[in-house]
TrEMBL record:
Keyword presence, Ligase: yes
One Pfam family this sequence matches: 2_5_RNA_ligase2
GO molecular function, one term: ligase activity
UniProt KW Isomerase keyword: no
Top-level lineage group: Bacteria
Species in which this protein is naturally found: Arthrobacter silviterrae
SUPFAM superfamilies attached to this UniProt entry: LigT-like
Protein name as it appears in the record: 2'-5' RNA ligase family protein
Length: 184
């Protein structure tokens, strides 16, 4: 899964590179993938829609970082995210995203707790939970994305987080970790 970083950025490939994300339920992922293809073409859905919690690397060993992510997942509770409308990071970054109406505090808390350990977040911008719809496209495509999804709304239950590593030239899911220690 290339490009799981916030705002389309991804850390430099290394054995210690890791990402922690919230995946979308299959039906919502398919719908959002179709929207992304509308704006950026057929390659846009190669990276499924997600919310990035950490895009970075292990400060020490992968094993220590992975165990830390497992611990945070076990200690966290499932929560609801509500996606409502669009926003943009322009002119700082050419990104159009779906805004989180509910679930922001939980995402910010998870992000902070994940970084309170052997993980580094390697994105040049501050953490702002969002779901990228379009990035690095020409201005007309960015404007179409922002306008077309301005009234978009969806809710999802977050019951797990995905732990990814960067290997063999792309992002790969290592573990889907249930929140609260339950089954995902």
């Amino acid at each position: 899964m290339p490009g799981i970083g916030q705002s389309g950025a991804s850390p430099a490939p290394s054995p210690e590179s890791l990402g922690v994300i919230i995946s979308m339920p299959p039906a919502l992922a398919e719908e959002l993938g179709q929207w992304r293809e509308t704006f950026a073409g057929s390659g846009a859905s190669a990276v499924p829609a997600h919310i990035t919690l950490v895009s970075g690397r292990a400060k020490g060993s992968w094993a220590e970082a992975a165990e830390h992510v497992r611990t945070i997942a076990r200690e966290a509770s499932p929560f609801t995210i509500s996606l409502r409308g669009t926003g943009t990071f322009a002119p700082v970054s050419d990104v159009v995203f779906l805004k989180l109406d509910a679930g922001v505090e939980e995402c910010v808390d998870l992000h902070a707790r994940l970084l309170d350990g052997p993980l580094e977040h390697l994105v040049e911008f501050g953490f702002h939970p969002h779901l990228t719809i379009a990035h690095d496209l020409d201005q007309p495509a960015m404007e179409r994305a922002e306008t077309a999804l301005a009234d978009f709304g969806a809710e999802l239950e977050v019951s797990s987080i995905g732990l990814y590593d960067y290997s063999h030239g792309g992002w790969a899911l290592r573990e889907e970790l249930p929140l609260g220690g339950g089954l995902s």
